[in-house]
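Anyone able to model this chain together with NDP?
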Amino acid sequence: MSRGGSGFIGQSLSQLLYRRGHKVTVVSRHPGESRITWDEVSKRGIPACDAVVNLAGENVLNPFKRWTPQFKDEVTSSRIETSRILALAISQSESPPRSWILVTGVGYYPPSRKQEYSEESPGGDADFLSRLVKDWEAAGQLPITDHNPKTQLVRIRTGVVLGRTGGALPSMLWPFRLFLGGPVGSGQQPFPWVHIEDLCRLLCQTIEQEGSGGGILNAVSPSSISDTNSDFTQALSKALSRPAVVPAPAFAIRALLGTDRAVMLLEGQRVSPKRTLQSGFTFLYPDLASALVDLVKT
Ligand code: NDP
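re: yes, here you go
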């Protein structure tokens, strides 16, 4: 079962799960085939299933939405309320799932060009995004009840998810194709990222693996520990055979997105997938060159 399953990551995950023989029910604001709505979950709880994955969330970087208090509330509540409702439904279920997976972000760790972070690193108090991730992850905590289910809670903190059909990459491609691509701001900010296929494979492993004990997993490529925005720009330029000489200046990004959101593009975190690798997961796309060559090929 997947909440937010109609979005970019949710659709890719559903396809992979179908291919692996699983059945998927999407929880959505909009009713439809193989879907249940929020109201239905609130009234009747969740259907019997092996795993619940929360992928719901208003798009933080939607350039068409101004960074108003109402939009900030929507960004926050679409993550926290959905996590809280699902955690409650799981705790009240007669046949609770084995896994409850929250997909959050590496924005939990404070932006820094020097500091290296793994799953054990502290965070959650640096800026709007890191506080959001802290509260989002806390909202997913299963309430203590008399019949507390033996459900493992896994928090997957993902970097920028690179894919053909959604997320940040498609909107970055057209400037490059028009010879207008270049680094964002100084280009020296860390660029933690993961290929959509690797993220979905990690989610599948987490759903299918019994007894991993839950906890935090960073979904970032191994090279993310040292990749910068400039490295990403150069690798994209090479994969597309286009120059990368037109930078997007920091002031323009701030003017377009507002200071809180501009931080997400102008700063970053050096993150390693230490515990993810220890879990036995292997990345198909461990570096930018292999990921971008795959993603831009026609
Ligand atoms: P999408 O924007 O593609 O999909 C998000 C889903 O959330 C939609 O399917 C929609 O479902 C649901 N949704 C949107 N707004 C609301 C709302 N106001 N209330 C309730 N549900 C809402 O996002 P992604 O697939 O890219 O991301 C999924 C999750 O992963 C998000 O929480 C995101 O923050 C997180 N993440 C994504 C990253 C990325 O690079 N893509 C990086 C780090 C974290 P419906 O319309 O069917 O209700």
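The domain at 2-296 is CATH 3.40.50.720 (Rossmann fold).
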